[in-house]
Structures are given as C-alpha cells and as structure tokens.
Amino acid sequence: QVQLVESGGGLVQPGGSLRLSCAASGSISSLDVMGWHRQAPGKEREQVATITSIRSKKYADSVQGRFTISRDNAKNTVYLQMNSLKPEDTAVYYCYGQGVTIEDEYWGQGTQVTVSS
User: Fold this and answer.
1) How confident is the model at residue 47 (pLDDT cuts 50, 70, 90)?
2) What is the per-residue burial (b if ≥16 Cβ within 10 Å, else e) of 37-57?
3) Going by C-beta distance under 8 Å and a sequence separation of 6 or more, which residues neighbour residue 41?
4) Computed over its alpha carbons, how large is the radius of gyration of the chain?
5) CA distance 5 to 66
6) Can you spell out the DSSP letters for 79-103?
7) How far is residue 84 from each of residues 27, 32, 66, 89, measured CA to CA in Å?
8) Contact 30, 101 (CB under 8 A)
9) Any residues with CB less than 8 A from the CB of 67 and at least 6 apart, and which?
10) pLDDT of 10-37, one tens digit each?
C-alpha cells in the first residue's frame, strides 16, 4: 500500500514558477508509472505529465516545454517543476501512481495551484 501526499501549491503570478512535490509513504520503485493530473472547477480531470520506472516522460500539449516531471526513488518523491505559468494552469493538482496491475492505483489528496495577477 502506497500513500501519496502532494505539497508545493499556492498562489503565483502569470509567468512565475512553482515546484510541486509528491511524497510517498512506500517505495515508488514499485510503481511503474507516476504522474500528475489536474482538475479545474467545472472541468474534467486531465493528465498533465507522467514518468515511468525507466524515466520515460509524457506531457500534455498544453504544458509541453513549460513543465518538467522527475522522480527521486531514493527520496520516494515525484516532482513537477512548473515554469511560465498561465492563468489556465489554475487547478487542483493530483499525484498518482500505477503499479503492476490495474487495481494497484494510488491518488494523492491534491494541492491547489492558482495563477493570477
């Protein structure tokens, strides 16, 4: 069983940066895929970025070139570096992990990111 806890959210001006952290109670080495999703009020949750156990990365087109996902297995932590933030990035950001089976899925509680002048 893995517990995920996000942190690092907050209020930032357009063009600013934030770094989100996702700390796991268990070893993230057991998770094949980890990533970040986000959900804005009234909108569906969308995938932002993923990283596999071999560090293959994928990004949503909307964040490509601005966001960077990384993982530190020694610290059991996944990060999302967000640069050049836009108001449309405003959302609750959720960390998730996927294990070897479809039933082995974990979600964090989310952290609020607000981009506003």
Assistant:
1) very high
2) bbeeeeeeeeebbbbeeeeee
3) none
4) 13
5) 23
6) EEEE-S--GGG-EEEEEEEE-SSTT
7) 31, 29, 6, 10
8) no
9) 48, 49, 59, 80, 81, 82, 83
10) 999 999 999 999 999 988 888 889 999 9
